[in-house]
Amino acid sequence: MAEALQQLILDTLDQFSVIDDTRTLVIPGQTVPATSQDAQIAILGALNSLQSREMISYETRETSSHALTPEGAQIALEGSHEARVWAALPLKGEGEPVGVQELRRKIGDEAAKVGQGRAFKNGWITKEGSGFVKATPAIQDNTQIELREVDSTGTLKAGEKALAELRKRKLIVQRKGQWFTVHKGLNFSTSIAKPETDLTVDMLTSGSWKNATFKKYNFEADGIPTSGGAFHPLLKVREEIRNIFLEMGFEEMPTNSFVESGFWCFDALFVPQLHPARELQDTFYLSDPSTSLRPPEDYYKRVATVHEKGGYGSIGYRSPWSEEESHKLLLRTHTTASSGVMLYKLAARCRGETIDEHGNVGYSEGDTPQAVEGDGFRPAKFFSIDRVFRNETMDATHLAEFHQVEGVVADRNLTLADLIGFMRVFFKKMGVTGLRFKPAYNPYTEPSLEIFAFHPMLQKWVEIGNSGMFRAEMLEPMGFPKDVRVHGWGISLERPTMIRYGINNIRTLVGHKTSIEGVETSPAVMF
Questions:
Q1: H or E segment to which residue 453 belongs
Q2: What number of other Cβ atoms are within 10 A of residue 218's Cβ?
Q3: Which of 47, 351, 379, 487 has its CA 20 to 30 A from that of 250?
């Protein structure tokens, strides 16, 4: 059918040079011209196929016509509702008036309801007593006449106003159509043999390629989209925050130790052994292996002493020290555990120790403290962005596994004002301004501050981070000089990601409900 229709178009062009109106064509297998819209759609398919080979060109002509609705078709056959009401009544003075109920019985409820008002409006009927009678002996049913004209011609000589009235009454509907004017193309031929699309080995061997017609290649056409990988939104935001840290001169900490001991995760940070965060409902503990290797003995004793008895200006927690609690293995609840290890290594020179190429701390040769210039301290700035684990009940804003962004700054004589100023600079680079700070409590920082920012979408102040200055009970057992202060702060990675991408349920950001298509199409984020 398609090839026969293409051949018809080519033969007609060959005979007449142009096809002014494709509605004059008679499709193969048909006996009447192709005036219907379905026939023109079939012709359009043939024209597009021929045009792709530059055998023809065509212009589209738009048409507009009207067709009767089922109600309009009934009126064209039986007359309008108002005419049927008039016909059912006696002429005034020549019979008994017809009441509403009898009129409905004669012509039906719908015709009586609609036709009664229009008949009164046209002056065709009048009320007499409790019934109706004809007001005129003869009428002209213009609605029926117009509908019959539309049915035969698709339009009205009376013009658009009359058509609009019929459309308003839902007696006709407008239908748009198209037809085409066709001309010969650059490669016009009466043959519809398809051009070759590939140069094959057989064609080269036989030499048939010399006489073959090849399809023209469109080198500007888009290729098939590649299905390469894509960065998850968390990774995009992570990279942006990481770049901010590097721009500010920070060094990234190694944070690949997801499993930590209770000592490094809590004790070394001066978190009491009876703190609620260490209970089973908040922390994941390992069952096999369940205990860790012992930390450096001298440091371990200093930490145990400051917890149990105090020191460095502190009275400690005055509670019994449990080695069993200290050696438990757990999934780290915060990356501050890694910060504590890095700070312990940073203080090695202050203690007269060395750090080998693998990051291990030990004494210099002869097991004697190494002589260092001054007290051996050097300022440092560290950061990390990695996963932490907490035994949380999962909901729209909480997961048992999430990412923590953490930074620490160690230098002499730092103050709380330095911390607040640094926070303002750091968050400004993330696009967050107008910060507010609220005093808070953390076991290992004093003073401690919660950081708040105004959320324009929620129209309220929301907490975006926590910060503070590490306590002397944490720093001095490591070996830091008394004038060294360390700033520490942390934020989650998921919360800024959710805000940036307009996500209101964290389970659609991470987990089995994550949209792969959303990951592939999510834009890069710029703070």
A1: strand 445-455
A2: 8
A3: 351
Task: State the helix-helix crossing angle for 70-78 and 142-153, rounded to 10 degrees.
Answer: 120
Q: At what angle do helices 109-122 and 100-107 cross, to 10 degrees?
A: 110
| Sign of the torsion angle spanned by Cα atoms 147, 149, 155, 159 | negative
Instruction: Output the DSSP codes for 132-184.
Output: EEESSS----HHHHHHHHHHHHSS-TT-HHHHHHHHHTTSEEEEEEEEEEEEE
Q: Count the neighbouring beta carbons within 10 Å of the beta carbon of residue 138.
A: 7
Q: pLDDT tens per residue, the chain (527 residues)?
A: 788 899 999 999 999 999 999 989 999 888 888 888 888 899 999 999 899 888 899 999 988 888 899 999 999 998 999 999 999 998 988 888 899 899 889 888 888 888 888 899 889 999 888 899 998 999 999 999 999 998 888 888 888 899 998 999 899 998 888 899 999 998 888 887 777 888 899 999 999 988 887 877 778 888 887 777 788 888 888 898 999 999 999 999 998 889 999 999 999 999 998 888 778 668 899 988 989 998 899 999 999 999 999 988 899 889 889 999 999 999 998 999 999 999 999 988 888 887 765 556 554 444 444 544 567 789 999 999 998 898 877 666 667 788 899 999 999 999 999 999 998 998 888 878 888 999 999 888 999 999 888 877 677 888 888 999 999 999 999 989 999 999 999 888 887 787 777 777 777 777 777 777 777 777 766 55
The rounded Cα 31 to chain-centroid distance in angstroms is 54
What does the buried/exposed string (b/e) look like for 245-278 if buried means 16 or more CB atoms within 10 Å of the residue's CB?
beeeebeebebeeeebbbbbbbbbbbbebeeeeb
| Three state DSSP letters for 121-138 | HHCCEEEECCEEEECCCC
* CA–CA dist 196, 206 (Å, integer): 15
The answer to whether the beta carbons of residues 475 and 484 sit under 8 Å apart is yes
N-to-C CA span, the chain: 60
Is 0.70 surpassed by the pTM of this model?
Answer: no
Q: How far apart are CA 312 and CA 473, in angstroms?
A: 6
User: Bridge partners of 411?
Assistant: 485
